[in-house]
């Protein structure tokens, strides 16, 4: 009782804010308020047949993938951008884990867990990892692993080159920037396995394409991709 009263008092002075809309959270809410949970722009791509999935079409003729999945639609200056900003630049790694848990549970309920043997996040270069303190894609992968009940490995892929930011590059420049910067750390952990590659945002898909190509070359049986959000082209 006293602990609850103390928590309520602290909450009045230092309210916890929803990371999407910045409104105060109430008891029982974590990271996201109930309103944002209901109104976020979900894609529901996992409910579509693969041939009808618009995200999958972005990889046609470039990379053979089993599933193309993204939890949310990226809308500039909206809730999703706020969430990604908190995750990548404000030290809120729990945002990635929480979103992964929610999405993983949805994918599990849709029967997709049986299609994956291993979840692999897009790696950061060690210098960038040391600067940020964590890999936002790995945080998302951790949550997905819990929701899907599929193991994740943050060391299966390694980034060998510290590339420049992709933000202002076109597709050709993005592909050139990442085409040869990934390698498989331990091929025996990949051979014959169905890999779900995960990242925070999908724009052109160049980074995920490069990771998928390396994994398939190392002997993966097939690859799928999943992101927190995807941007419209």
Automatic annotation (TrEMBL):
Domain Double zinc ribbon: 10-42
SUPFAM superfamilies associated with the record: PRTase-like
InterPro entries for this protein: ComF/GntX_DNA_util-trans, DZR_2, PRTase-like, PRTase_dom
Positions of the Phosphoribosyltransferase domain: 137-229
Coiled coil: none
Domain of life: Bacteria
Family membership: Belongs to the ComF/GntX family.
Name of protein: ComF family protein
Species of origin: Hymenobacter jeongseonensis
């Amino acid at each position: 009782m006293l602990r609850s009263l103390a928590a309520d008092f602290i909450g009045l002075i230092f309210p916890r804010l929803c990371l999407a809309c910045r409104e105060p959270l109430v008891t029982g809410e974590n990271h996201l308020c109930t309103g944002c949970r209901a109104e976020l722009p979900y894609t529901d791509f996992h409910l579509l047949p693969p041939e009808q999935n618009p995200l999958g079409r972005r990889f046609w003729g470039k990379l053979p993938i089993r599933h193309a999945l993204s939890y949310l639609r990226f809308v500039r200056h909206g809730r999703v951008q706020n969430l990604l900003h908190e995750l990548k630049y404000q030290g809120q790694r729990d945002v990635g884990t929480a979103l992964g848990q929610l999405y993983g549970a949805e994918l599990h309920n849709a029967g997709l867990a049986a299609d994956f043997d291993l979840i692999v996040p897009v790696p950061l270069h060690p210098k960038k990892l040391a600067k940020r303190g964590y890999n936002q894609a790995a945080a998302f992968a951790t949550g997905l692993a819990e929701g899907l009940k599929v193991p994740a490995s943050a060391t299966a892929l390694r980034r060998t080159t510290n590339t420049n930011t992709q933000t202002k590059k076109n597709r050709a420049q993005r592909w050139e920037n990442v085409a040869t910067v990934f390698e498989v750390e331990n091929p025996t952990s990949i051979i014959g396995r169905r890999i779900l590659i995960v990242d925070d945002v999908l724009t052109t898909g160049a980074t995920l394409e490069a990771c998928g190509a390396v994994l398939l070359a190392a002997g993966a049986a097939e690859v799928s991709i999943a992101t927190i959000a995807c941007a419209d082209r």
